[in-house]
């Protein structure tokens, strides 16, 4: 990836790996599961050529960043603590950046704006809208009640169990399975529906070489760090009680594909289009639903996404 520079920065007591390119106002790119800084490769190259400095970390537990051992080290506060210090490191003068998030990175983008709005100029989030807290129902219970105990969020909860099953079928198969067709259900013994000897066909937007970059990194680190984000869903729900009902006031734009699994969640379309989302994020300026596009929208439609990001952020100089 031409001209992209890599370095380790010490933030919040751990080492975080960042990839960066360009000069100008900083855009911080936050990846999701099971991804890496590399998921933003198209955005880094494009936005750095449009007058921005693109910075994409591997979140804690991922890639070349440190992966603390304890499950409790992956709460929303730990990860946002990393990001706040990272913003101070990459933009010491202003201490305030543009943010783009996808999947878990989008959830973190919303949290960052909720806890530290002074750190974010404007936000573009992909795939996961702001998720309203339900004061009575814990998130893991909510998913289980809709989708049963084979739902991936339920299956990710037990420390070590899904790691063992992933190890059996191999990192390559797991990653290619996720990146090509994010499975909502993971029944024991039939994790990715296909027989083990059947080839995994990659989508047209992901080359073998690109997929292998992920495989190489995850073979080194395993999945425990990334899965620990999910293992803190209920803990985050408890920790976030003081913010129930709070609004996100940062200027925001939201983009998702109509084939994204998140768009199909019960009640999601109604929340996004019928006022709930706008109520929770009063500065939400635009919602874009792209036809025929799935979950990994920034890799599937890089040119359109790059343009959307650029057009939105240019208002705030």
UniProtKB/TrEMBL annotation:
Keyword check for Hydrolase: yes
The protein's Enzyme Commission number: 3.3.2.10
SUPFAM superfamilies: alpha/beta-Hydrolases
Family indicated by similarity: Belongs to the AB hydrolase superfamily. Epoxide hydrolase family.
Origin species: Gossypium raimondii
Catalytic activity, reaction form: an epoxide + H2O = an ethanediol; (24S)-24,25-epoxycucurbitadienol + H2O = (24R)-24,25-dihydroxycucurbitadienol
Alphabetical list of InterPro entries matching this protein: AB_hydrolase_1 (IPR000073), AB_hydrolase_fold (IPR029058), Epox_hydrolase-like (IPR000639)
A Pfam family reported for this protein in Swiss-Prot or TrEMBL: Abhydrolase_1
Function: Epoxide hydrolase involved in the biosynthesis of cucurbitacin and mogroside tetracyclic triterpene natural products (e.g. siamenoside I and mogrosides IV, V and VI). Cucurbitacins have cytotoxic properties and exhibit deterrent taste as a defense barrier against herbivores. Mogrosides are nonsugar highly oxygenated compounds used as high-intensity zero-calorie sweeteners; they also possess pharmacological properties such as regulating immunity, lowering blood sugar and lipid levels, protecting the liver, and acting as antioxidants and antitumor agents.
EC class (word): hydrolase
The protein's annotated pathway: Secondary metabolite biosynthesis; terpenoid biosynthesis
Name of protein: soluble epoxide hydrolase
One GO molecular-function entry: epoxide hydrolase activity
Domain AB hydrolase-1: 25-143
Keywords noted in UniProt: Hydrolase
Protein origin, superkingdom: Eukaryota
């Amino acid at each position: 990836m031409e001209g992209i520079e890599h370095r380790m920065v010490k933030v919040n007591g751990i080492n975080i790996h960042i990839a960066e390119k360009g000069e100008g106002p900083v855009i911080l790119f936050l990846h999701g599961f099971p991804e890496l800084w590399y998921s933003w490769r198209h955005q880094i190259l494009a936005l750095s050529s449009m007058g921005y400095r693109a910075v994409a970390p591997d979140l804690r537990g991922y890639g070349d960043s440190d992966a603390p051992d304890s499950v409790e080290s992956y709460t929303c506060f730990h990860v946002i603590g990393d990001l706040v210090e990272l913003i101070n490191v990459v933009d010491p003068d202003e201490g305030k950046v543009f943010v783009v998030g996808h999947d878990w990175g989008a959830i973190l983008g919303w949290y960052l704006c909720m806890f530290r709005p002074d750190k974010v100029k404007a936000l573009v989030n992909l795939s996961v809208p702001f998720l309203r807290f339900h004061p009575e129902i814990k998130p893991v219970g909510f998913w289980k009640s809709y989708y049963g105990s084979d739902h991936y969020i339920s299956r990710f909860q037990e420390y070590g169990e899904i790691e063992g099953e992933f190890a059996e079928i191999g990192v390559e198969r797991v990653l290619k399975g996720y990146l090509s067709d994010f499975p909502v259900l993971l029944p024991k013994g039939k994790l990715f529906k296909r027989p083990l000897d059947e080839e995994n066909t990659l989508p047209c937007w992901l080359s073998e070489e690109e997929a292998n970059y992920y495989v190489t990194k995850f073979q080194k680190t395993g999945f425990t760090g990334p899965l620990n984000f999910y293992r803190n869903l209920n803990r985050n729900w408890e920790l976030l009680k003081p913010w129930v009902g709070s609004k996100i006031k940062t200027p925001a734009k939201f983009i998702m594909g109509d084939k994204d699994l998140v768009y199909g969640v019960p009640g999601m379309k109604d929340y996004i289009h019928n006022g709930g989302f706008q109520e929770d994020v009063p500065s939400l300026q635009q919602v874009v639903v792209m036809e025929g596009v799935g979950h990994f929208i920034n890799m599937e439609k890089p040119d359109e996404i790059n343009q959307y990001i650029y057009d939105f952020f240019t208002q705030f100089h």
